[in-house]
Design goal:
The protein has seven helices and no strands. The longest helix is centred in the C-terminal third of the chain and has 11 residues. It has one domain. It is 43% helix and 0% strand. It is an all-alpha fold.
């Protein structure tokens, strides 16, 4: 979910919602700032119609997309509320249309890491430098 960014709750040109991870000082806020940029948020907003076409929330679209990604062995989702956990779990069995998968990849373009070998390059120790 990339710290909640793929849920669509963060919008380009707007302040983060009160109480969100991006408003909390500390490690979480510092980590999310590296991707909480308008170029990323604009692309995420372009995913909204795709989620609607698939009859999914943005969070569910993200989970389904991740689980269909060949570089991913499992999806680690979080939720601070029970309904978030239930919604994430509901996406686990969903198969996105091949056209939707291609559209997501096209929209996100270079703002996502496609090389599975790069996973370790964003470890917490390296992010804090």
């Amino acid at each position: 979910m990339e710290q909640g960014i793929l849920s669509g709750k963060y919008r380009p040109g707007e302040r983060p919602p009160a109480g969100s991870r991006a408003t909390h000082e500390g490690e979480g806020a510092r980590f999310i700032r590296r991707v909480l940029r308008d170029d990323v948020l604009l692309r995420v907003q372009q995913l909204v119609p795709l989620a609607q076409e698939e009859n999914l929330t943005m969070a569910q679209l993200a989970v389904a997309w991740v689980l269909q990604n060949g570089n991913v062995a499992s999806a680690i989702t979080g939720g601070s509320r029970p309904e978030q956990v239930r919604n994430n779990a509901a996406a686990a069995g969903r198969k996105l249309a091949p056209e939707t998968m291609a559209d997501i990849d096209s929209i996100l373009g270079s703002v996502i890491e496609r090389d599975g070998a790069m996973v370790g390059t964003t470890s917490p120790k390296q992010r804090l430098r």
